[in-house]
Amino acid sequence: MLILNREEPTTALDYDLINSSIKQTFTIIDRFESQAVDEILVMRDQQVFKDAGYNSFEEYCQAELSAWGGYRRINQLLGAHKVIEAAGEFGEHIKNERQARPLVRLAKEPEKLKSAVELALSENPSPSESDFAAAAKIILPKRPRKKASVEEPLVPYGDANASLTSERKYPKEYADAITALKEQHRQEMERLEQELRIGLQAEARDRVEKQLTEQLSSSQKLYQEQKEEIIQLRQHIQEIEALKQLEVENQRLLSRIKELEHAVEQRPTQQWDNTMTTQATKVLNKQVKLALEKTIDLRSLAVEPPLDNAQECLRLMGMALKQIASAMNNTQAMEAAAIILGSSPTPSAIALRAEQLQLLPQAISEIRTVLSKPGCRWQDYWAVAEKYQSIEKDYLAELTKSETELITALQNASSKPDTIGVGSIVAHADPYRTLYMERGEVVEDLGDKVIVAWDSWRNESKKTDRYFKSELRFWLLE
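Below the sequence we write its predicted structure tokens.
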């Protein structure tokens, strides 16, 4: 701190020295002011002022610190201290109470307080009181004060009771208008109450209906589950009854076997030989006869198979006949099995054919899957069909007419050139046209244009239309 001697002329003083001394003095004042705030907080928080007989902190400030502004100044210093603490890392930029004063109203919102300090620093690296005030006004604008409402003129003291018991007098035209407005207001309130009552009733009714619907849905679901459980229980009961019957039948057969064994042990072996041979021959002849009769029926089935799942039925019947032929060495049964399965009447050929037909359901499923894909090509179809080439006739017989036509179209399209001409199977090239997925055939070539007959227009009055070749594409081909 520089000590000036007023007797010396001012021209002998150095500007930099005086300027730095002034700044140093104000810095010391701010530091002492901060130290005073710390001591004031100790006095207030620990209530040391009571030792001197003061009843409150305000009384102490007014009595002891009136020379430095009293309780008002102390409150300003404490507010500045609160602002600096709430600002956190930005508190070091607030140098004194004057700079903190416009930020006191932001102390309860630290984030907004920090934003205000940061905004002031962006405008001026060494912000002043006015910079902080402008930033606080931007971050949290002050609300305009409400104007005092116009009050009715006061009634003189002597007429106070009269003002409480009597209403204000208005001219007749005003009184009629006020009465009409009151009536209109009353009617409007009644209408609103009625609408509100109706709305509440409708809302309650909707809520009850929704609850009833949910309860009904849950009841139906529970009923369906119980019904399924009952069906399953009945099936289990039927299975148990069947098992019981089988057990009874097994017990009867075991008993019969024991009786026969006992009878064999009781009579001489030679005496039973002819009897057993005779009985066995009768049984065998009877089985062969039944098998031959069934063979005749199976031959007719081979000529005219059943409509539902014909190939699978014939395959199973052919396997059954093959087993009968193998077990009884019956040539007619072998021939019937060969006719049904479509192979040579040899055991190896029948066995091979049966193995091939076992792949038929899988082949049909895979081929239908690839044909149902949009943009199917011949290469996609052939990648699947090549595995089942040995049973091609079988799966073609099971496919529908549209599926076999699609296979033929794919095969023809794969072998034809890329140029659209007469006989080409086409569709429209624009994916946004309805004819993009429709099938059509070129019936006439006009050079740049062709005439197409659409399958979907067969029952329409207009069956063909003329297109440029560039507007068309091969049907289901990329």
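The first helix runs from residue 15 to 45.
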